[in-house]
Design goal:
By secondary structure, this protein is α+β, with helices and mostly antiparallel strands. The protein has a domain of about 180 residues. Helix content is about 45%, strand content about 10%. It contains nine helices and six strands. The protein has a six-stranded antiparallel β-sheet, with no helix packed on it.
Length: about 270
């Protein structure tokens, strides 16, 4: 009985570990923290793949693409993605690589791996054969789509041309710069989730860095609202002081009479 109990406990712990690990990569794209040996001093020349919402880099010795607002590289049997042209890069799980990336014909891979040999250049790589039966079963029909209904390619983030060489931003600066200059909203769910996680630390940093008003600033901002009611309350008091003679039983008529007389005398002097 003890052995069975220990066995069940061990199995439960293993299941918890597997669940936790799966939840950690549920979006399929990690945070950008990988260097894959690509070192681009300037923004690369990107050319559209005819009939696909994808760009490729014909002058680079790399399988380098752009799709849905991100750069994609196939290297060492892995897919990597980045929101900036020179990384850092994030590892992408095979189950979460966008289908339009997988559909890119073999001929647009500038550094095709050895197992691409013999495959048709105008057809996509045989990912089902490469990644196995399980992947193929979960992605049935991945290479069949209405080519007339293909989405338009995302606009190129040409603002990144300004950041080359020593001006290339650090990883913690990249989300804010991209958010300021690139308004495209990705279509792919995995890409959207990746950007949400990537921008979360930057958004928290901006909230923490927001200026806090001191007591004097708060008083100054509230002063216009406080002064106006006080003036409205003081107005009746002024009128009461002006009406003081009437309260003491004195008449205001002589004052008005003297006012007119003074006016008449003044006008008379003027005529003389």
């Amino acid at each position: 009985m003890k052995k069975i109990r220990y066995g069940l406990m061990t199995l439960f712990m293993l299941l918890c570990l597997v669940t936790t690990a799966t939840a950690g990569v549920s979006i399929g794209i990690g945070l950008p923290n990988v260097s894959i040996g690509i070192n681009l001093p300037i923004f690369p020349d990107l050319v559209p793949v005819p009939g696909y919402p994808v760009y490729y880099a014909p002058r680079l010795d790399a399988n380098y693409f752009f799709y849905d607002g991100m750069y994609w590289v196939y290297q060492d049997d892995n897919w990597y993605a980045s929101s900036w042209y020179n990384g850092p890069w994030a590892l992408v799980e095979p189950d979460f690589v966008p289908l339009y990336i997988l559909r890119i014909p073999v001929r647009y891979y500038r550094q095709p791996p050895v197992y691409f040999r013999g495959w048709q250049p105008n057809a996509p790589p045989r990912w089902g054969q490469h990644w196995g039966h399980r992947w193929e079963q979960q992605h049935r029909g991945w290479n069949r789509w209405d080519r007339r209904a293909a989405p338009a390619p995302a606009p190129l983030p040409t603002y990144q041309r300004r950041y080359s060489g020593d001006r290339y931003p650090r990883v913690e600066q990249q989300p804010a710069l991209r958010n300021q200059s690139y308004r495209y909203q990705p279509r792919e769910r995995a890409v959207r989730e990746h950007f949400r996680q990537e921008y979360a630390p930057a958004q928290r940093g901006r909230q923490e860095a927001a200026p806090v008003r001191g007591p004097r600033q708060n008083d100054q901002m509230q002063q216009p609202r406080a002064v106006q009611p006080q003036r409205e309350q003081q107005a009746p008091r002024v009128q009461e002081r002006n009406q003081g003679p009437r309260d003491r039983g004195e008449s205001a008529e002589p004052d008005r009479g003297r006012g007119r007389g003074q006016g008449d005398e003044g006008r008379g002097r003027g005529r003389d």
